[in-house]
Amino acid sequence: MHSFSHDLSILTKKITTIGSFSKSALVGIVATLSDLFLLFVLVDLFSLEPKWANIPTLLLGVSIQFFGNKHLAFQSKNTSPWKEGLLFTIVEIGALLLNAGLFHLGAVQYQLPYLATRLAVGLLVYMFFSYPLWKGIFEKGEPYPTG
Description:
Blueprint: H1 4-16, H2 20-45, H3 50-73, H4 81-109, H5 114-139
Helix pairs in contact: 2-3, 2-5, 3-4, 4-5
């Protein structure tokens, strides 16, 4: 008989053996699925235009990205959590601008399917902008005091 805590313990051990890129990608998948689900709900169920639904869905995704990358992907114990939050916010402002601009270009200007556009744009911005900068934020610096 397996208990939930036993299964959770096994899952946690497996996750800790995966590298930061893979764990960050897993966090990104969760953030992206949440983003896409909310985007679908806002556009198809609430009839909001994709260009207006885009921003709140990105904010949901970025919140998941911060906490997931800090605690799961990088298991950060570096620098001040406030400093990490500030640096992450600066990176994400850049990512938000890139995502919003490229999404607008694809989904609005070229009228590409909005969900496919979100996936392609999000992947490109993640791989070539966000992840390299997050790695620098969460893996560098002095450990902050815990007590």
